[in-house]
Amino acid sequence: MNSIGEVIRNTRKKQKLTLKEVAKAGSISLSFLSEIERDKANPSISVLKRIANALNVNFTDLFGEKEQSIVVRKNERKPLLHSEGSRITWYSLSEGSRNKMGPIWGVLEEGATSGDVGVGHSEGEEFLYVQSGCLEFMLGNDRYTLEEGDSIYFDARTPHSYKNVWRGETQVIAVSTPPTF
Q1: E-strand stretches of the chain
Q2: Distance separating alpha carbons of residues 178 and 163, to the nearest angstrom
Q3: Reduced to 3 states, what is the DSSP secondary structure of residue 46?
């Protein structure tokens, strides 16, 4: 299986895009994108989402094609993405990249953050449910405190970010359409 960097580079080349064009569209530096493509840098989730948007692909496409399955067993679930910088691990709750919605389960370590507000998607809607713990959720200029059992539904184009403000781990279930993971 190809690395994320290889998938990004191959996707960019298939679309006949230059590093400069993708870097500009993704609001990241040319040198950082080059390092990502050469697997010399570990990008955050928000950077990977901006690259996927710049390439006009679903976030899941950066991880390669998975076989379609209607059941995902908890003991067979593997981390979809773990970002050391953000301290968030995402797990897919469905298989296959042809799905119309993308349900994921997130485990946020104490103090974990998705990054700066400013990450919106090119289209779609998102739903997030706090299974345990507490999140501070920024949606545009609005700040919400979401506690266990709370949920939020929003236009995915609106810039958003979140941070675990719980003393301990916070777990969330998120669903996006179209899938971003």
Answers
A1: 79-83, 88-92, 102-108, 125-132, 134-139, 142-147, 151-155, 160-164, 170-177
A2: 23
A3: helix
DSSP 60: G
pTM, 2 dp: 0.66
State residue 85's pLDDT score.
63
Give the tens place of pLDDT for each residue, 94-144: 876 567 788 989 999 999 988 766 666 667 899 999 999 999 999 999 999
Q: Is the dihedral of CA 176, 131, 94, 84 positive or negative?
A: positive
DSSP string covering 20-33, please? Answer: HHHHHHTTS-HHHH
129 conformational bin, left if phi > 0, alpha if psi -120 to 50, beta if neither: beta
Q: What sign does the CA torsion over 46, 104, 60, 121 have?
A: negative
Mean pLDDT value across residues 11-20: 93
* Residue 57 pLDDT exceeds 70: yes
What are the tokens at 58? 């679903």
* Rounded CA separation 20/171 (Å): 37
Residue 179: CA atoms inside 13 Å, Cβ hemisphere, count?
20
